[in-house]
């Protein structure tokens, strides 16, 4: 070997520096590795909680809790909270990882030529269908994030958060004022409470029991590329609620949830 390091040695050196520094820049916490079971009727809440705790406590620049592609996980009401040791944390309802750019452009070329079809089903989170699952818990929550800084909740444009709210709609006091057991409060699909520097993007919110997204006491939030839908017949399924918050930007978001007055 001459006076100058070969590329391999240089690579080794960089690797050694990373190794000595002792912690990775980025870590992925796949919920399936924490015991999540695919399927819309098996509870994966514990696994999500565990993956969240591991991601939050990891001393990385960025930690990601991943609901991988082609997986549907059912989650009961859950509160994921900070503060986290990870400098930033991502909750990703998404395909595993993007193809490297070259392969991706080749694939796009190949696909656009119509010779092959790549299935693009991505991660989905679904709620329990029965309101009974909320017995003894806060009925205003389903997926809640609290006291976190630099949180990003994202999908790949196809990732879904499905509140499966029909059971709640069927007993809402608005539509069934004389029903025994009617409910005034139903869960908001995603609540983000006391969080600074949050991004919420590239997700499809469907059929929440009540409002789909709520921000409370948040600073600097960017919401973009959301599609929020619930049928015309659903009561009180608002798109996005914002309370006591500062610097909230909403871009490129389509909300199709309808309240029909004077029924
Ligand atoms: C958010 O910012 C406010 C004001 O700077 C601060 O009081 C609060 O502790 C921050 N919250 C988090 C979760 O970092
Ligand atoms: C949020 O998105 C902005 C770009 O729009 C980026 O600069 C910032 O780092 C993102 N924050 C998180 C927590 O991912
Ligand atoms: C809600 O009511 C509709 C119409 O009565 C019924 O078809 C549906 O099964 C009910 N859904 C649930 C989850 O109870
Ligand atoms: C949303 O709820 C309506 C009414 O129950 C149902 O027809 C529709 O299929 C649901 N949408 C999805 C994407 O599940
Ligand atoms: C706007 O959001 C939709 C839905 O997520 C997405 O398909 C589209 O690419 C977005 N447009 C831009 C300019 O980002």
Automatic annotation (TrEMBL):
<keyword id="KW-0964">Secreted</keyword>
<feature type="signal peptide">
    <location>
        <begin position="1"/>
        <end position="22"/>
    </location>
</feature>
<dbReference type="InterPro" id="IPR000743">
    <property type="entry name" value="Glyco_hydro_28"/>
</dbReference>
<keyword id="KW-0326">Glycosidase</keyword>
<dbReference type="Pfam" id="PF00295">
    <property type="entry name" value="Glyco_hydro_28"/>
</dbReference>
<keyword id="KW-0378">Hydrolase</keyword>
<dbReference type="InterPro" id="IPR011050">
    <property type="entry name" value="Pectin_lyase_fold/virulence"/>
</dbReference>
<protein>
    <submittedName>
        <fullName>Probable polygalacturonase At1g80170 isoform X3</fullName>
    </submittedName>
</protein>
<keyword id="KW-0961">Cell wall biogenesis/degradation</keyword>
<dbReference type="InterPro" id="IPR012334">
    <property type="entry name" value="Pectin_lyas_fold"/>
</dbReference>
<keyword id="KW-0134">Cell wall</keyword>
<keyword id="KW-0732">Signal</keyword>
<comment type="similarity">
    <text>Belongs to the glycosyl hydrolase 28 family.</text>
</comment>
């Amino acid at each position: 070997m001459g006076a100058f390091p070969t590329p391999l040695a240089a690579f080794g050196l960089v690797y050694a520096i990373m190794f000595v520094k002792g912690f990775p820049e980025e870590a992925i916490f796949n919920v399936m590795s924490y015991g999540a079971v695919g399927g819309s009727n098996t509870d994966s809440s514990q696994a999500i909680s565990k993956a969240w705790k591991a991601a939050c406590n990891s001393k990385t620049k960025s930690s990601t809790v991943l609901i991988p592609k082609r997986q549907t996980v059912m989650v009961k009401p859950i509160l994921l909270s900070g503060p986290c040791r990870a400098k930033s944390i991502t909750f990703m309802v998404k395909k595993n990882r993007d193809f490297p750019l070259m392969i991706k452009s080749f694939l796009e070329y190949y696909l656009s030529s119509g010779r092959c079809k790549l299935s693009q089903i991505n991660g989905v989170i679904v709620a329990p269908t029965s309101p009974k699952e909320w017995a003894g818990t806060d009925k205003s929550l389903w997926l809640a994030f609290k006291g976190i800084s630099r949180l990003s909740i994202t999908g790949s444009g196809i990732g879904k958060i499905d509140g499966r709210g029909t059971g709640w709609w069927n007993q809402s006091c608005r539509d069934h004022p004389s029903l025994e057991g009617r409910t005034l409060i139903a869960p908001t699909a995603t609540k983000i409470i006391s969080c600074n520097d949050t991004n919420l993007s590239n997700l499809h919110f469907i059929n929440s029991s009540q409002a789909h997204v709520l921000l409370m006491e948040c600073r600097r939030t960017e919401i973009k590329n959301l599609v929020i839908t619930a049928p015309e017949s659903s009561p009180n399924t608002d798109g996005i609620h914002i309370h006591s918050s500062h610097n909230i930007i909403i871009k490129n978001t389509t909300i199709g949830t309808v309240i029909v007055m004077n029924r």
